[in-house]
Amino acid sequence: MRRLRTFTGDRRGASAVEFAMIAPLMLLFYFGLTELCQALLTERRVNHVAAAVGDLITQKEEITANEISDVFIIGSIVLKPFPQAPLKVVTTHVTANAQGTPIIDWSKGYGGGAAKTKGGTVTLPTELTLNEKDSLLVTEAEYEYDSPFGFFVPQGITFKEVSYLRPRRSSQVTCLNNCA
Fold first, then answer.
1. Quick one: which of 76, 139, 148, 154 has the most CB atoms within 10 Å?
2. Domain count of the chain?
């Protein structure tokens, strides 16, 4: 009976027991926070890819399909340290007709992103209006984020970003060859 009282009154292992109870929750919290930070960083990088690709193209008056491909490669480098394989980018140059409808002049895709059909239309946000003969470069970036842990986000997340930029040096950016 005396040994039982000594055992129940002994507090020497209390810290180890408390740690064993709290450690799994702390690890779960740590990996969840790490996962969240990685996903947010990826989303910011995808946003930057869309803006950077559009920005580099709008600095030109004329551009070739090969130069656009080089810009896409630069955009994929912006994504580092994340894998570039899931990145899809489509850049589309539109000019407004007499009714202000954006008509596709040319489009080019990268990484499996499908170029849009020449002569088609693009839907712009309602706050973005074009007057006749105004032009705009629409760059869309899409990235399939796959979790490095796979526990918190087992299916992955698709990030989609769109950048709208006006040409800088001329009224439009002309694609000289092999653009849809």
1. 139
2. 1
Give long-range contacts, CB 8 A cutoff, 24+ apart: 79-82.
79/45, 79/46, 79/49, 79/143, 82/42, 82/45, 82/143, 82/145
* Of the candidates 66, 54, 76, the residue with the CA atom closest to the CA atom of residue 167: 54
Does residue 45 sit within a domain?
Answer: yes
Residue ranges, the chain, pLDDT below 70 = 1, 4-11, 150-153, 180
Joined tokens for residue 151: 């526990």
Q: Identify any residues that bridge with 140 across adjacent strands, giving them in sequence order.
A: 90, 162
Residue 169 lies in a domain: yes
Q: What is the pLDDT of residues 32-71, one digit of tens each?
A: 888 888 889 999 999 999 999 999 999 999 999 999 999 9
In a domain, 96, yes or no: yes
Range of the domain at 121: 13-175
Is residue 180 situated within a structural domain? no
The pLDDT value given to residue 9: 66
